[in-house]
Design goal:
The chain has 105 residues and is of the alpha+beta class. Helices cover 29% and strands 17% of the residues. The protein contains two helices and six strands. β5 and β6 form a beta hairpin. The chain starts with 20 loop residues before the first strand and ends in a 7-residue tail after the last helix.
Amino acid sequence: MERVKGIDTIKEDITISPPKEIAINFGIMEKWQRAQSLLAPRWIAIIPYCVKCKTPLTWVMKDERVLFECPKCGVVWVKENGWDKKLEKELAKLEEKNGICTTTS
């Protein structure tokens, strides 16, 4: 039986020179968070890594644009254009589904 660390499954050809800023689509992040919630009860964590440095990313909290950054090489992952509009639509769907009204007249 062969065992390989998960971090060592990162393909070398994508680690050469990533851009300094990488945009993340709202839908991708939403799916990733769903996967996290499904795996967490099974004691599996999904931790984002920089593919260049193979270093865990730092979560950036309370920033309007940046989601993650690599503490080693400085690459940042940012919200793709239109992120806030998509988030507003998703929140409105949840509010409607759950009978919550947050709008004021």
